[in-house]
Amino acid sequence: MMKLFLKLIRDIKQSIGQFIAFVLIIAVGAFFYGGLVTYSNNLSAYTEGYFKEHNLSDLYVFYKQISKNDVAVLSEIEGIKKIEGRYTFDATQVFEGEKASLEIHSIPIENEINTIAMIEGRIPSKKNEILLDSRYAKEHLFQVGDEISIRANERNFALTISGLGENVEHAKKNEIQDHKAYGVAYIAEDTISEILGGTSYNEIMIDATEGYDIDKLGQSIEAQSKHLSYVNQVSKERTFSYSKINQTIKNNKLMSMVIPFVLFLIVAIILFLTMSRMIDSQRNQVGIMKALGVKNRNIMLHYMGYPVLAGIIGSIIGCTIAALVFVPLVTASSARAYSLPGITYSLSFYSFIPPIIFSSAFGILACYLSGRTILKERAAQAMRPKPPKKMKTLLIEKIPGIWSHLSYSYKLILRNIFLNKHKALASSVGVVVSTVLLITAFGTQFALQQVASQIEDVYTYDLRVDYTLGTSTDTVKLPPGIKNRYYLSTFPVEFIKGDGKDNATLVVTEKENTLIHFFDENNNQITLENNGVLVPKSYADKYHISAGDIIHITFKAPELQNKSVDMKVLHISTQYSNPSFYITPNYLKSFGIDYSPTALFIQANSSVDLHSVRSFFEQDPQVETIADRNDLKKTAEYILKQNHFVFIMFIVCAVILSFGAIYTISSINIYERNRELATLKVLGYQKHKINRLIFFENMILTTFAILVALPISGYVYSMIVKALSSTHQQIPDQLTIPIMVVSVILAYLLTILSNLLLQRKVTNINMIESLKGVD
């Protein structure tokens, strides 16, 4: 066994480049597996514990005003485990001409719901004390003990920072996590009277009994609130922070399964091809080992050692690089995306095991399937080279005037390819797989850019103004300088078609709204009509919806009491970011539902007017938030920034994987043709001519592989996009010509690079050794 092990080491040394390429291929798969699984598992485990430890509220109910006594009465409702009242309001701070918004909550005296994770200092316990979220404080260089000035209720107040912390309900504040322009703060209940002149609440947080139906609980609360100034309610599943972080976890779990699976599948194909051809090329060595009395089982184990050793080394290297590169980048990305105090990402030791098992298993299977036929042969038979194949006349030879004009080199290339059709096809498989991977990698990166760019194509408003809950359009005041304005409102709904159902958002806006645009899958603009609904393509793809179908919508807002309606599908709308269903106010009213707008899209006459218009709305106490086109650009840039490094690494790894595949296959081709190439050298063929012979043969095989890969890549890309997409996230599934051209050029460049690196292998062919044989 020791001699067989030494032979294994010698085989590796003789083809060290091939072994390194092998290890790199496995390392790429292990790299993505280790990195993505670490990110997905750690984020999921942390958030589950974080939400539980700080008791995230199951339901938020909003009122214009509610007293402590009323809160105590509501606490008796069945299904409520714990109820807490608080007052929430908006304030502003000004920094050198720039304004920042603060969402301020009062802290219940006995706070057990949405408790604060303290970073520094203490929770406010006195009047005129405030706790800031740590990210906002860091942006503005605030520290515990500093005095800050805020403006609320048209008055200025001086408050002292008692502490810094993070709250479970604001794990994600807004789309781009802009901590400089937006922050969250907490004050003691005693401070409410100082700022607002009263001690009532406008919001209650509810910790529901485990397993109790939240929808049923919400309806009970609304029924008990008829004598109160009830406004609205939102379950935790529909809050911005909770829904976003859970969508991220869901997408990460999909990516952690899909991407490593695709990469390991590629690794498996290359391993299978390589090991099969390696054993076949060493049949005479197998015969010698059999003649020396080595058992078949030991010979098989000897060859199985090659992929196992490569699998162990490659998996360790891949996972180690993931720990050093992928995990720190993911940590930085997560810190930008969420406020999760104390979260850490560390690669588990067990992450090394699946890549080792997977790569080794395919290598062992390849060895078994390739070696069992040779091992059945007698020693003398195995030691003889396979009899040369009988060459039939090629089709091109029958075409007059072509074959005779070809040079001897090209005749050799064509004869070799057609004489070894199976080997040529096997070689092409590696190039096909690598080309498909390159196209998929570039396609995914381009798709990400399309997602970001569509945001600005869809929304062309200058300002989006969102009003506080309960605001009526009759009380809304508008300044001069507005060119166009359109109202809209949103409803939480449940979409139902057949046996399938999903949470969704229904947006209602005027048919004439020119500040929001809709596109079909061919990027042609479509319009809203008064007799149907626009359905996002993400939902249409999952539930097989077509224009003209009837879909079932249930309104989940408690005041609508689960009202269900049937809507006709007008068009399928391509919406990459935040896909929603769209209808007009007239269509909504046809179902007996009142239209109560909650937001306003505005287009100003000029940039000068835009400044005055914005200033007007900033002074309006009914306005909750204002967004402009810069916010849209920031959102697009944020999407690119958050995902850029993953896809850059994916492209780099695709290049490494492709190079490893092409180099490995080409290396084996040379090894198998040692005898033929040695013969040419003996006959006086010059070195550069032999290299050119191999080069052109590989280029022909690469060209054939690319022609096969192009249609396959479209299918593979659509499958990966489908796996990574969901009803709440659509990814473009169309490949463009430039992407394919870049991928094809890169495949050729990698083939050229492989040929250049393999020239030394041709030079080092031992003519005497290679020409020895039993004839």
Automatic annotation (TrEMBL):
Organism: Brevibacillus antibioticus
ABC3 transporter permease C-terminal domain: residues covered: 257-369, 648-766
Transmembrane keyword on record: yes
Protein topology in the membrane: Multi-pass membrane protein
UniProt superkingdom: Bacteria
InterPro entries in alphabetical order: ABC3_permease_C, MacB_PCD, Membrane_comp_ABC_pdt
Keyword set includes Protease: no
Membrane spanning residue stretches: 20-39, 254-273, 305-327, 347-369, 424-448, 645-672, 693-717, 737-758
Keywords: Cell membrane, Membrane, Transmembrane, Transmembrane helix
Name the UniProt record assigns to this protein: ABC transporter permease
Signal peptide, first to last residue: none
Subcellular location field: Cell membrane
Residue ranges of domain MacB-like periplasmic core in the record: 22-223
